[in-house]
Amino acid sequence: MNVKTALILLVLALATIFALVCVLLTRGRAPSTCQDQPPEQEDTDDGQSLVFADLTPEEMVQVVQYLQGNLGVQLVDASRAKPSDNCIASVDLQVPAKAEVLRFLDGGGARPPREALAVLYFGNQPDPNITEYVVGPLPTPAYHRDVTVQKYRGKVPYHRRPVTGKEYMDINALIQRELRKAPRFLATCCESDGTDLAILTTAPRGFKSGDRATWFVLFHSMAGTGYYLLPVGLEVLVEHRDLRVSHWQLRQVFYNGRYFASMGVLEEAFVASLLEVVRIPKPQAEAVLGSMRPQRPPGSPGPLQYEPQGPRYSIRGNRVTFQGWSIAFGMNPNSGPRLFDIRYRGERIVYELSLQEALALYGSNCPGGMLTRYLDGSFGIGRFAYELVRGLDCPYTATYVDRHYLAESETPKTNQNSLCIFEHDAALPLRRHFSDSQSLYYGGLRKNTLVIRAISTLINYDYIWDFMFHGSGAVEVRVHATGYISSSFLHGQGTDYGNRVGPHTLGTMHLHHIHYKVDLDVDGQLNSLETQDMAYKIMKEPWSMQNTIERLYLRRERLEREDKAAFLLNTPMPRYLSFASPNPNKWGHPRSYRIQITSFAGEHLPASSPMERSISWGRYQLAVTRRKEEEPTSTSIYNQNDPWTPTVAFADFIDNETITNEDLVAWISVGFLHVPHAEDVPNTVTVGNGVGFFLRPYNYFDEDPSVDSPDSIYFSSEQDARACGANPLACLPPAAACAPHLPPFRYGGFLNL
After folding, report:
1. Residue finishing a domain among 116, 143, 160
2. pLDDT above 70 as % of the chain
3. 341 and 204 in one domain?
């Protein structure tokens, strides 16, 4: 053997020894607890959920360019369009018909063409109107069709259009000109020349179809705080129906309980000492009512939620998957969050779950407050869902998603990081039991949920929209209200309408009513509505017949028509109400999902009100109807400015059709009455101001599906609970060392206003 051969053998031997040592050292060692692990569920969607995906900015641009080149009329950018101009008001996804989508998703059919819905205001026409076009196919449009009459059974009158930002700017300019007619009054009452006063719109805008006259409420404005708590007692009524801005006029003035024909008349009354003036000094930054600036220096950081081995959910495009759940998510710029094709363990539970409307209805002894019925969809629930603050609005390590919209502009806008997705540890067992008899053991499961969240700021209020998916197969929908209360100037018998919360501020009572559409497909499209509730039967006890007992029994009923399935607000409703499949589970019961509502709603507007039909969805805490493609939403953005002749009246959906073994939709209303009080300053807190509903499996499975959860815990008295192999909770101490590398805090929410 020569030297060269010996050296080669020696190197090989050393390499072998090194490899064996490595194997011995690592044998039995678990992989690093801090190493990110891929989610257990692989996404097999293959892009099918893109059929529900919101439009991309590029698609929006293509639609705008197509309309500009193919309608044969001049279009002015909506951001500067006068009422007498033609403009593109908005562009959004046209969701395909359900039958087409299901053929594609379930039947191997063709992908439906991708289309957009474009809303145009035609003010420069002999017959001004609102027209809606479906434009497609995307990404390269080649056709458009007018769907207005098909959707609304007639043309949409021009006066129903939502007020644009440009219209508000022109109104503000008019108000400023009028305020200059009362300089001495303003200097005395408010230490102002009017230019530093904030102006807040109200709605609706009149008392009959065709009206467009709005009360505007004036407040002191202070940089860095909400002006909503600082009314000065002055409100003005502006007539802005005419398409010629120069013909708009201020019709009436209200101050401290009195009405005047104009600011000039008000000034004359002041000069003649015929007016009682309440002097309200200009607020000072260090003592302004409603300031949110911290009053104490920061303390130590609070608890931090993080995933030791990375997120256990997976996001691909517009679909998120998590421990058996699969959800397609999106955002309608008007009505807000919308979810589609919600599946659990591969089975579709819900085809569509979407917010429809948010109503805020006020009371006051000032004209602006007593008139106000905000229908927030007409302002833009999705459009005004701004960037979320990392670590406060959502957990710091949540996944943040951008949303895009095109409204009142020919250029798409992006609300970056405006939707968040995260796994939430509720710090509560989903289920548990400690056995202290016969055998000794403990079993349980943490309540971890997947949360999809967005927050909309609609003038003064902030609505937190949550959609939560539980390991038990339940879906939870929840909304919290926070932000600033709206207020009126305190005068006369003001406390008949709320509580005093500042020197001259009345926190005005109001109600929040929220409406949702839930298109359940429980074990297929064909479902029936079944109710169950309790009753007592007095009977002789059967073993001796000498005594009576009140025996509790279950009362079951199948509701066969829509009229029977429309439950008026604040009236008794069966405690168990379920969408039932014709197919049984293992134990012979219909596979079902139960609707469970948590709400403290105020009273609905009286049926005698001329605008009640526009919010007739609010009559019902729950109404179940047959699903129809021509009834996609319970309201319309056009209802706000013409509630007396509503474009969509939900009450018409309920026409007593049969609902047995049909494709059904549940329309759910939740809400609460809010009487503002001192603790609503500076902001209303979310505690106690949350309402919503659950969709819970009811005999849908053969047992609780969470038994398959990898997070389950079980150990007995015969096991060493301190051992990681016997009890996963014992594995947590090493995982606690896996502190995440947090991204630097950034916020760009002020950049796109």
Report:
1. 160
2. 94
3. no
